[in-house]
Amino acid sequence: MLAYFEAVRKVLEKLESTQEESVKRAAQMLADAIASGGMVYVFGASHASIAAQELFYRAGGLVPINPILAPGLTTDVRPITRTTHIERMPGYAEVLLRDVPIGPGDVLVVVSVSGRNTVPIEMAEEAGKRGAKVIAVTSLAYSKAVSSRAPSGKLLYQVADLVLDLCGDPGDAAVEIPGLKQRVGPTSTVAAAVLLNAVVVETARELLTRGIEPPIFLSANLDGADAHNASLLARYSGRLTYM
Q: 164 in helix, strand or coil?
């Protein structure tokens, strides 16, 4: 068996055995926001921004999700090493949120594997000050093995209303190869995609139990999808930050 497949399988089994209740609580939070006319925002820096991109304008995904794609903190930045420095900058989160209409009734999902860097932590803190609910997607084992880089001294999981644990190892990489000092094979991207899509599915289920039709995108490559998606986009006109 391939070592990485086995490593991911172990993480997925741990997610399934430990995160079910947290996923359901997150789904309740998203359903509350959507049912009351609120929006869901999602942020991640560097490779964690991939999780943010997974959630918005996605076939089978919820419509009222806005990514916060920060200049200097996505993987198309050159040199890519700049993301490492920017993610540690105090005050940048507040600047990013100046033009984001997040507030009471909304939810912010913040993805940060280590949970130690300043921008994700201050993003969560600022959203909380505005009255939004905050969900942290992070590796608790990793966070508890490091110190905070934020001026507050807090780690991401300490400033969130709810935590979804990525169940990864400190350093993220999971596979040991004899003769190689460093581990290889990070698991956080896979784990984040699984957790967040599980939340989407359970949110749709929860909305249905409340008698609300979940606003779900169809794949643009299915017949009839263009009209379906256009109708949903029109419903949220002026509220989707990427349109």
A: strand
